[in-house]
Amino acid sequence: MRGIIATGTHLPHRRLDRAAVAAFFGKGGGTGTRTVASYDEDTTTMGAEAARAAVASTPDVDVAALWFATASPAYLEKTNASAIHATLRLDASVPAFDFGGAHRSGTGAMRTALVAGPTTLVVASDARDGLATSADESHGGDGAAALLIGDDTAGPVIAEFIGGASVTDEFLERWRIPGGERSRTWEERFGEVAYAPLMSQAWTAALADAGLAIEDIDGLVVAGTHRRAVIRNLRSLGIDPDRIGDDLSSTVGNTGAAHPLLVLAAAVESAVPDQTIAVMALADGVDVLLFRTTEAIASYTPARSVASQLASGAPVEYATFLSWRGMVAVEPPNRPLPNRPSAAAAHRRDDWKFGFVGSRDRGSGMVHLPPARVSEKGGAVDDMDDMPMADARGTVASFTVDRLVYSPSPPVVFAVVDFDGGGRVPLEVTDVDADEVEVGMRVEPTFRRLFTADEIHNYFWKVRPLRGADR
Length: 471
Known about the structure:
Layout: E1 2-10, E2 14-17, H1 19-25, E3 33-36, H2 43-57, E4 65-70, H3 81-87, E5 96-100, H4 105-115, E6 120-127, H5 135-139, E7 142-151, E8 159-168, E9 174-175, E10 184-185, H6 188-210, E11 219-224, H7 227-234, H8 259-269, E12 276-282, E13 285-293, H9 306-310, E14 314-315, H10 318-324, H11 343-348, H12 350-353, E15 357-361, E16 367-368, E17 384-388, E18 394-402, E19 412-419, E20 424-429, E21 442-453, E22 456-465
Parallel strand pairs: 2-14, 4-5, 4-6, 11-12
Antiparallel strand pairs: 1-7, 1-8, 2-3, 6-7, 8-13, 9-10, 12-13, 15-16, 15-17, 18-19, 18-21, 19-20, 21-22
């Protein structure tokens, strides 16, 4: 049996009310909300958070390969998957590869891992943009999803892959050239007409491949950036409308390359045993993948479910959204821009920078953050064990609100954090308004981008508040 062993998702904390667009410009927008990546998030950091959640859901399963897909990579000519690999502290022998460029890359990576190979962590992430008042701006979304895929010899399979089909056609419906700032689309009716026969062909072939009738499908989720093609052609498939699942369009928006994995993860997380779930993705053709949940789903608990993240978001002002996206330029604090980080220095401290690994003195038990060779208690030298802290939780001991330091989105909140089990370190607090922070607030680490200088992204760890049941 081969299929999904674990799911992991990341939805940014901030949400834009689409009605704010029309209130600002007098047109555009719509109803519902979309997720908005913060100024310190990109596709790599979001992918890392989703990957961490998937691994945390099944800590006893070894990852043998890592594949990362995005249409909005933080780097070109450099493997973005390697940063995610480092946050997970995977062994150097575990390969990490990018599946990049097209929206279809997320589905392609997932399908390839489902067919054969080792236990593979497939991660997809995207940040969707568009011109102000455009449909892409309002109906896009930011987020990431990860699926740990393998055989039941590696761990309990919660959703078995039972069949699928792919149909490919060459037509110009959505595109963006290298260096282009936004996607472009052809006239809507063209895409609607072009996708219609492909959807029918892929759907029929997938059912035949799995040996199923349409009545056997308990739920279908559809992902596609061409909403008109999705909505108008769905009825031709003949499936009961009550069995069409939530595509998250009204709460998250379409997350591009990540969306097929995201809606599938949401469907699996809310399923019961022996349900048949289909996911259909429209992008330069149509892919249909069919899964059947197993008894293992009854005892499976995701580290951070889609439902819990949807319930814990907070609004962002439209003007702030435009600033974060670089659509408007605002006056920054009157301080020098940061210098570019040193590649050599970063490489020497990879475990600390990407893995958030401190050290614990074997004699006194004191935790040192950052890691140290000499213990502060007793002065022992090189008598330390690694102390991974990425999954630790802590408490704000003190904090300051800095309105002068450079930041793309001032003010900056710095806090001294005491971690459970030992360790104290000053860190920036993210996903929070300055007036929310208080002494005693419970927090957890999150992988973020500190700044970009000379086209080098400086990644490190911040903390975010624990909310809801996580506290």
